[in-house]
Amino acid sequence: LQATCEINHLVGTAAKQGMKALAITDKGNMFGAFKFHSAARKNDIKPILGCEFYVCDDHTNKSVKDDGHNLVLLAKNQNGYRNLCNDLYVVFGAHFDHEVVRNVFFLQTMF
C-alpha cells in the first residue's frame, strides 16, 4: 500500500474544515470509490473519483524495457467515471500484471 486512510475519518475531517469537494485516487483500481462516494454525499461533499495509471509507449513490446510513468486520471463527470471503469475492465480483462499499463495511443483515443 502506498497510503492508507479511513474513508469516514477523511471525509469527516474534510466536512469539519468546510471543504466542498474531495478527491480519492486508487492505484491501479477503484476499489475505494463506492465507499468514498457514499461517505462524501452523506456529508454534502462533492466526491471526485480517479485512478493512477501506468502509461508506456507500447505495453505489448516485451523486447524493450519501458517502465512508463504514472498518470492520475480524474473523472470530470459520470461519463468520465464510466470511461475510467471501462479502461480498468479492459486492462484486467487482458490479464496484465497487477499494475495498470496502457499505451499512449489508447489514452488519446479514450478522451
Structure description:
Strands 1, 2, 3 and 4 form a four-stranded mixed β-sheet that branches. Helix 1 runs parallel beside helix 2. The chain contains four helices and four strands. The model has no long low-confidence stretch (mean pLDDT 79). The protein is of the alpha/beta class.
Entry summary:
With 111 residues, the chain is α/β, with parallel strands linked by helices.
Please give a handful of descriptors for the protein shown:
single chain, 111 residues, alpha/beta, 4 helices
Number of helices: 4
Radius of gyration: 16 Å
Q: What would the principal axes of the Cα set say about the shape?
A: elongated
Structural class: alpha/beta
Number of strands: 4
Low-confidence stretches: none
Distance between the termini: 29 Å
Mean pLDDT across residues: 79
What fraction strand? 15-25%
Instruction: Summarize the biggest pleated sheet.
Output: 4 strands, mixed
Share of helix, binned: 25-40%
Order of helices and strands: HEHEEHEH
Chart the SSEs and their pairings.
Layout: H1 7-16, E1 21-27, H2 33-42, E2 46-56, E3 69-74, H3 78-93, E4 101-103, H4 104-110
Parallel strand pairs: 1-2, 2-4
Antiparallel strand pairs: 2-3
Helix pairs in contact: 1-2
